[in-house]
Amino acid sequence: MTKTKRIFVSNRLPFNISTKTGDLQRGSGGLVSALMGVHLDQPFYWLGFETDPGVAAELKQKAQQVDKQLRLQPVVINKKLYDSYYDKFSNDVLWPLFHYESQHVLFRREDWNSYVEANRLMADEILKVAIETDTVWIHDFHFFLLPAMLKERMPKLQVGFFLHIPFPSSEIFRQLPVRQEILAGLIKADLIGFHEHSYLRHFTVSLTAQMGIDSSFLRAQIGDHTLNLGVYPISIDNEGLKEKSESAAVTARTHDYENEIKSNFLVLGVDRLDYSKGLELKLRGFRRMLKKYPDVRGEINLLQVAVPTRTKVPAYMRLKKEVDQLVGTINGEFGQPGYVPVQYIFNSVVENDLLALYRRADSILITSKRDGMNLVAVEYAVSQNLENPGVVILSEFAGAASLLGDSLFINPWDEDSIADALYSAYKMPKEERTSRMQSLQEILSRYSATEWAK
Ligand code: GDG
């Protein structure tokens, strides 16, 4: 008898081939951080797109070096189709709309056609490796149409779908010209998971408004098909991350940073340079703090790691320019010899450096305008040393806010809210920092990527 297997599907595979060394290299981003933390005790397939056939062949061959259970299945897609389905429809329509940034939406019918075609290509490839008793787990907004495409041809296949970004209010969702087509594709899944209750609620309202389908909070009966719905906040490999952050290599790096980064109170920011992450709001809030609380000048520094993303897209270029200017303005206005308030890195850092920065920083500042979850907040909390922990300052618009109740919450649109939270974090007595962090770590110890996946 053929063994039942699990099949993961995401836009890209979790690895690529380094152009410098030719080695397998882990991809970045929240989805990879979470999914690579899932430990499964049986083989699983992972399908994702790759535009270069040579890289695809190499990926397949090298995959077992990292995990013997993992069977990477690169699906080769033509570059032109990929650009239209991914860069255009997924990233210029679905991403901004689902993050309440309608002004960035650029809908073109031909890109929608590419999205349908790319979903069909992925469905064909899944059906080459799947049998009826398998479970397919689809990740994210790139594949809203896959559940229906799979079920049509293999009705008994178990199909799960997890949305890594917010599901927007029905009033926003209805702006999408292909709103019904998207829902029709998605509702054929057996289970749809969201990070947060409000996303699920928005989804059920749209289901009623657009499709006339009523649902209880956790189930919709659509003819003879039962669609299950659930809230499953994503997590990471907490134990693994904790261990790494206490390792000798990270401890040595943390000491380096303690000597190199001169600051009495270091606030850290780690975000992709995406408009959803609110970097410009973060800088305005930081500037407000320096104005409103003169005693912090010379004391508090912000170190912002801004990871480049979609650098050739005009909206992202404009954002970069605005951020560059704000950094210059703040440093010009409040800098002194020996005190540069904002240090800004437009690059990514390697994992050990990131963990050392988490350990070195006195606070993490997250100002997302909208964020499905936000794993940086989770990672920061997990990596803290309880002997002298830092403070999590978190936007109320990040999904993580529902989980991390002992953070200091801010409304990123309110400069004073950011300024006041920073000042409170700076003044916070050690006992309060410790009790807040203890409670955050306690909550997070109950969540792991593997439990989430189960
Ligand atoms: C999407 C949703 C949701 C960042 N900079 C560096 C680096 N990172 C890693 C972090 C973290 C990940 O990237 C970022 O994850 P987030 O969750 O914060 O954000 P997105 O990438 O936008 O992820 C998000 C997530 O999916 C999962 O469902 O939470 O809401 O938008 O793991 O550590 N890693 C390294 N260097 C960096 O410079 N090594």
Tell me what you see in this structure.
This protein has about 450 residues and is α/β, with parallel strands linked by helices. The protein is built from 17 helices and 16 strands. The protein has an 8-stranded mixed β-sheet with strand order 5-4-1-6-7-8-10-9. It has a 6-stranded parallel β-sheet with strand order 13-12-11-14-15-16, sandwiched between helices. Helix 3 packs across helix 4, helix 4 packs across helix 5 and helix 10 packs across helix 13. The longest helix is centred in the first third of the chain and has 21 residues. It starts with 5 loop residues before the first strand and ends with a helix. The model has no long low-confidence stretch (mean pLDDT about 95). GDP-alpha-D-glucose binds next to helix 1, strand 11, strand 12, helix 13 and helix 14.
